[in-house]
Write a structure and sequence with these properties.
- By secondary structure, the chain is an alpha+beta fold.
- The protein has one domain.
- It is built from four helices and five strands.
- The strands form two sheets. Strands 3-2-4 form a three-stranded antiparallel sheet. It has a two-stranded antiparallel sheet with strand order 1-5.
- The longest helix is centred in the middle third of the chain and has 23 residues.
- It is globular and about 45 Å long.
- The chain starts with a strand and ends with a helix.
């Protein structure tokens, strides 16, 4: 077993996000809807250091979470500051990650252009009200 030189942050939907989701008729009771998404972040020594790291990466997390809930960016909140992020999401820090797999970790790069095209095509398939 190896300890990974990363920490993680768990992002849980808050009541503010769930209220927004309900406004857009999104299923907040779907299986896994309230489960956290985990994001790997650099190691940190103190809660203050973790908070500084989170302030550096919150925008990417905010957009990934909103995209997970609803891909129509026109419905997303216009103001996506750190203060708004903290209101929309409950955050839990995980300072230790242990790798029980035993294989070397690999990363797969995401082709953002491909994902964008795929999202557009999927949105075109969704029935309009």
């Amino acid at each position: 077993m190896a300890v990974v030189n990363r920490c993680a942050v768990g992002i849980y939907p808050s009541e503010k996000l769930l209220a927004w989701a309900r406004q857009h008729d999104l299923d907040v009771d779907a299986a896994g809807a309230r489960e956290p998404c985990l994001y790997l972040i650099p190691d940190y020594e103190t809660e203050e250091e973790a908070e500084e790291i989170l302030k550096e990466v919150f925008e990417a997390i905010f957009e990934a979470e909103l995209d997970y809930w609803h891909r129509d960016t026109g419905t997303w909140p216009a103001e996506r500051t750190y203060a708004v992020f903290r209101k929309w999401f409950d955050v839990r820090l995980y300072p230790l990650i242990q790798d029980l797999v035993g294989e070397e970790l690999t990363a797969t790069e995401v082709d953002e252009e491909f994902l964008g095209k795929l999202r557009t095509e999927l949105e075109e398939l969704e029935p309009r009200p």
